[in-house]
Design brief:
The protein contains eleven helices and no strands. It is mainly alpha-helical. The longest helix is centred in the N-terminal third of the chain and has 30 residues.
Length: 284
């Protein structure tokens, strides 16, 4: 079954890529090693499809809507990140902040260009899957912002666009981590997060994705910085911790939030048990 094969290979890929990142200093050598790694797994997926075929349209859509973009997005992300860091200007924190904010605007412009496909993917819509993710089909009425090298055996109309959207969303998170916000002036409170950092990241994404701060207008990095300073914890590379959360899908990506929910339900049940029952008054 293709899905089982992809999940096993993707887990192996993430482990191998993490090893490269840990062992290689940031720079061209790391990028080169990651590109080789991504190409190896993409070629393996291509060979698997050519050898065994795809049993039906549903499996083909899964391959080009989810499987291929999952691997390809990391290729795009690391390549873009390398070039961004190569252009990083020397200077004061204000200079580097300005540079990273400009890069965020550039990323946002691309995400706006492909807003239709981004919203389609976020909504888990399926109406156009037969045109977007079946080989040989196309949507001529929708213009994509770029032309890419086309492999008729391993490409569809929108698989590269979905991969680039995933990559640019990761890129935006990484850029936001580099932006230094002003000191929020939190004094006199000595509360520290002593739990697993991944648990706090889970809470942060829950707060951000449900728009709980500033009517949903707060940036993810602003929420991260606020909680870092408030709870005295280092959440550097928090987007990588979110990748760890996504890898929990065999158990639950909301493991900690589920534990919190269960704890609150136990408290509610315990409070109800302890609450004295009102005695019946015959005059009532």
């Amino acid at each position: 079954m293709l899905k089982k094969y992809v999940e096993e290979r993707y887990a192996a890929f993430l482990k191998e890529m993490d090893g490269i990142i840990e062992e290689s200093p940031d720079g061209f050598d790391r990028l080169a090693a990651i590109i080789v790694c991504v190409r190896k797994y993409l070629n393996a997926l291509r060979d698997h499809i050519i050898k065994y075929g795809l049993k039906d349209d549903a499996e083909e859509i899964y391959c080009f809507k989810e499987a291929k973009p999952a691997f390809l997005s990391w290729y795009i992300y690391h390549t873009e990140w390398y070039h961004i860091m190569q252009r990083l200007p020397a200077g004061s924190p204000e200079v580097t902040n300005h540079y990273f904010l400009d890069e965020i605007r550039s990323v946002d412009r691309y995400l706006d260009q492909v807003g239709f496909f981004r919203r389609y993917a976020k909504a888990k819509a399926t109406e156009l899957d037969n045109l977007c993710f079946i080989r040989g089909k196309s949507m001529d009425s929708f213009l994509l912002p770029e032309l890419v090298e086309y492999d008729p055996e391993f490409s569809t109309y929108a698989d590269h666009t979905i991969a680039k959207i995933k990559a640019y969303e990761m890129l935006r998170d990484a850029l936001l981590e580099e932006v230094r916000l002003p000191d929020l002036g939190l004094n006199g409170i000595d509360l520290r997060w002593t739990g697993d950092a991944c648990n706090l990241v889970e809470v942060i994404y829950g707060i951000y994705d449900t728009g709980q701060i500033n009517h949903g207008k707060a940036e993810l990095q602003e929420i991260v910085t606020w909680l870092e300073q408030s709870l005295k914890i280092d959440l550097s590379r928090f987007y990588r911790r979110f990748t760890q959360i996504k890898e929990r899908k065999m158990t639950s990506p909301t493991k900690f939030l589920n534990e919190m929910r269960d704890a609150i339900m136990r408290r509610v049940d315990d409070d109800l048990k302890l609450k004295p029952k009102r005695k019946h008054n015959p005059d009532d």
